[in-house]
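Run: sequence + flavin mononucleotide -> complex structure.
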Amino acid sequence: MTSLFEGLKMGDLTLRNRVIMAPLTRMRSKQPGNIPYDLNAQYYAQRASAGLIISEATQISQQGQGYPATPGIHSPEQVEGWKKVTQAVHAKDGKIFLQLWHVGRVSHSSHQPNGGLPVSASAIQPKNSGTFSADWKPVTLETPRALERSEISGIVADYKKAAENAKAAGFDGVEVHSANGYLLDQFLQDGSNQRTDQYGGSIENRARFLLEAMDAVVGVYGKGRVGVRLSPYGTFNDMHDSNPVTLFTYVMEQLSKRGIAYVHVIEPRSTSAGGTDEVMRDAPCTSDLFRKPFNGVFISAGGYTRENAIDVVGKGTADAVAFGRLFISNPDLPERLQKNLPLTRYDRSTFYGGEEKGYTDYPFAEAKAA
Ligand SMILES: Cc1cc2nc3c(=O)[nH]c(=O)nc-3n(C[C@H](O)[C@H](O)[C@H](O)COP(=O)(O)O)c2cc1C
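>> structure
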C-alpha cells in the first residue's frame, strides 16, 4: 500500500511526501500594491515540510483581483516580494507552486481598473455570494459584464505573463486556478456560461479558455511544472452545471493529453470552499469519478482528516492529499500526521487580514512539548 508519507514523482519534481499544502487566501499582502513581504515569507517557510506548498491564489492582473490585500504577480514589486517567499521556502528545502488567479465575476468595481464592472463569461449575477470591497466592506456581487471574444486572448496573455513572472520570482511551478467559481470555472460550467461564440455552448467550447490558458503557461514552464485545480460539483460562488460528469471527464482527458504534472480536485463534501465547517456526507466522491480519465498525478482536497487521507492514498484513489485549514493551524502538519500527534484547532476569525496573529504564531509540536 502506498503511504501518505512516502515520496512522489510528480512531473519534473520529486516530492518528499504526499501531504500538500492547499492554496489558502489570507489577505495579508503589503499595501499599497498587493506585495508579498517578510511576514508572508516566514509563514510559508514555517510550512516548508509539505511535499509541495501551493501558494494562496494570486491575481494575474488588476482585473483578476476580487478581495482586498490578496497578492498579485503582475508588477515588478510583486515579483521582488515573491522572491523573498520562494527563497525562504527553498532555504528549508521546500517546494512551492504559485496559484494563478483571475476571479472573473467574484469581484467588485472598487478592485477593477477605472472602477469598471467585474467581467465573466456571461452577464449573470451570482446569487447569495459576496466579497469585500477595496475598503474591506462586505458587498454582494454585481452583475458582471460579459467579456468580448477579443478580450479573451488578452487574458490568456496575462496568464502567460504571470507564469513568466512566477518563474522570475523562483517558483518551482504554477497551478492554474480553475475551481471554486472563479473566471475559468465560470467559462467551464453552463450555469454561468451562456455564450454563443467559440467559448460557449458545447463542452469543447466551454473548456477552450481553460485549455488555452494551460497551453500558455505550459509554454513558459514546461508540462512537468504545471498543475490545475478543479472543483466539479462545487457550489461555492453559485456554480452549477447540467452535466458535470461529461464536462469534467472531457476536461480530464484533454489535460491528460497535455501530460501536465497534476490535477488537483476538490471534493464537494467540504462546502463553501472551506468557508464553513459543515460536511455534506451525501456529496458525490469526485476522486472516484475523475481519477480514471486523468493519467497523471491526482491530488485530492477537501475535508481530509489523518485517517481518510492515509486511506485514499493507500487505495490509490489519489496520489496525494492537500490540506487547507489544518495547514493554517499546524505548520508542521506532515510530522504531526505521521507521528499521530494532536492537531491544533484553527481560529476562523483570523483567516483573513491582519498580521502575525493566527498566521505565523501557531505552534510547532516540538515547541509545544518543550
Ligand atoms: C481561509 C481559506 C482560504 C482559501 N483560499 C483558497 C485559495 O486561495 N485558492 C483555492 O483554490 N482554494 C482556497 N481555499 C480552499 C482550500 O484550498 C481547501 O480546498 C478547502 O479549505 C477545503 O480543504 P480543507 O478541508 O482541508 O480545509 C481556501 C479555504 C480557506 C479556509
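>> summary
The pocket of flavin mononucleotide is lined by residues 22-25, 56-57, 99, 177, 179-180, 229, 266, 270, 273-274, 301-304, 323-326, 351 (CB under 6 Å). The two ends are 35 Å apart (CA to CA).
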